[in-house]
Amino acid sequence: MTNKRLRKPKVSIIILNWNGWRDTIECLESVYQLDYPNYDVVVVDNASTDDSIQKIKKYAKGGLPVKSKFFNYNPTIKPISVFEIDENGFNYFNLKEYERINPNKRMIVIKNHQNYGYAGGNNIGIEFALHYLNPEYIYILNNDVVVEKNNLKELVKVFSIDTKIGFVSPIQLYYDKPEIVNNTGAEIIFSKAKSTHLNNGINISKVHISTKEIPSLSGAAMLVKKEVFKKVGVLNDFFFLYWEETEFIFRAKKFGYKAYMCGRTKIWHKVSVSTKKINLTVLYFDNRNRIIVSKQYAKNKELFLLCLYLIYEIIKFALSSIVKYHSIKRFFVYIHGIFSGLIF
Question: Which positions fall inside the Glycosyltransferase 2-like domain (predicted)?
């Protein structure tokens, strides 16, 4: 096992949890069944209030069997040794003891003191991994996904195509519609400050998805080369929710890095489970951040067209908020997001 691990680049998998332990343990079970021999699992808990850390530790002991339509639960890999660390206590991490344990029998849990959002929470895991675990790649993985068994093996292979590949993402399918594509990457339309999912809604059997360069990708499953973080920096935690991976990718493109879709492996995504209950918060951050990213990376012509488009969109959103949703608050949250982005 040790020789096999040495032949494969090390990958640190960062899984962010916030009040979502049920999704997280299903994600973890799929991760621990990967056929890749050299990885770390780092769960970052964003100050959950639903006893998430205790539930995850109970799963690791074998006390919470996971039911899923995508795999059979494997009790033989339990117990999993949990190394629990406070966000301010990284120096207490026992690396020597950790490295004596096989990858599919160990887990690191970082306990944050507050909810730092998607970017801030992931950054804590990324910075820990870079400093203590020394991976070649970091896999940012949403807690509400299930990965295919060959996931890491196939994603890592893609980097051999071109030394300037900085990001690789798998095919993403809907969890509740396992044959329907959620996305095979993304295209950013700066003239409307919108992100469009490629091949969204198409049955996977009716489309050929090849491994190729794509304009952008979803942060739900994003394998990133270590040197990208060293040269470009980490995610911008000002964004808190939404568009942070888009900003990160376009920032990296200025350094010559490319994003690729891997057509040989899949994940199944529950799609924004963690934000369903806070949709007004989502509405604000989504609109604020899409404007900020567009201002930073759009061309002058695209910015001019965006100004025209926003006039139309604001009127349309006001009418839908009043007529369809009967909610003035919804419109004010939206307009607050738009103007916060414009004056940023």
Answer: 12-69, 96-232
Task: Give the residue from 81, 103, 115, 122 showing the smallest Cα distance to 33.
Answer: 103
d(CA 274, CA 89): 27
Whether the Cβ atoms of residue 69 and residue 122 lie closer than 8 Å to each other? no
Burial class, 227, CB count within 10 angstroms (exposed 0-12 / middle 13-18 / buried 19+): middle
Strands 181-183 and 165-174: antiparallel
Find where tokens 């973080």 sit: 229
Tokens of 73: 């639960």
Would you say residue 97 has pLDDT above 90?
Answer: yes
- Type and span of the H or E element at 119: helix 117-128
Per-residue pLDDT band at 274 (split at 50, 70, 90): very low
In a shared domain, residues 109 and 234 = yes
CA torsion, ordered 142, 146, 150, 153, to nearest 10 deg: 10
Q: Is the pLDDT of residue 6 over 90?
A: no
* Domain encompassing residue 215: 2-273
Instruction: Look at strands 221-225 and 137-142 and give their pairing.
Output: antiparallel
- Closest to 139 measured CA to CA, from 66, 20, 245: 245
Q: What is the spatial distance between Cα 56 and Cα 279, in angstroms, rounded to a whole number? A: 26
Tell me which residue of 171, 176, 181, 129 sits closest to 148, measured CA to CA. Answer: 171
pLDDT at 94: 96
Q: What is the pLDDT of residue 279?
A: 86
CA-closest candidate to residue 117, choices 252, 228, 245, 222: 245
Amino acid at 230: K
Which residue from 150, 193, 191, 192 is spatially nearest to 170, judged by alpha carbons?
Answer: 150
Residues 61, 78 contacting (CB under 8 angstroms): yes
Please tell me whether residues 130 and 42 are part of one structural domain: yes
Dump pLDDT digits (tens) for 112-140. 999 999 999 999 999 999 999 999 999 99
Nearest to 118 by CA among 262, 254, 222: 222
The CATH number that applies at residue 98 is 3.90.550.10
